What we know:
The chain has three helices and no strands. The chain has helices at about 1-25, 35-55, 60-70. It is elongated. Helix 1 packs antiparallel against helix 2 (about 35-55) and helix 2 (about 35-55) packs antiparallel against helix 3 (about 60-70). It has one domain.
Amino acid sequence: MAEQLGPYMELYETANGFITKHELWMSSQVGAFHPAKIEAEAESFWQTVQQLEKTFTDVIIVKQLISKVNMKI
């Protein structure tokens, strides 16, 4: 059962991680974070979501959620 729920948990953790980081990046003083690090972290979030999108090919509601997460990233 945990194996079946793993992708859902990974999607939640990735989306939550991006939202948390985004809020931190946007509310911090300019120059507090190196742009290359922000770019690398955002790219990592995006790649994970792209991989998860392939996992949920037959679950329409999750694909819609993934599309929204992709738009935010």
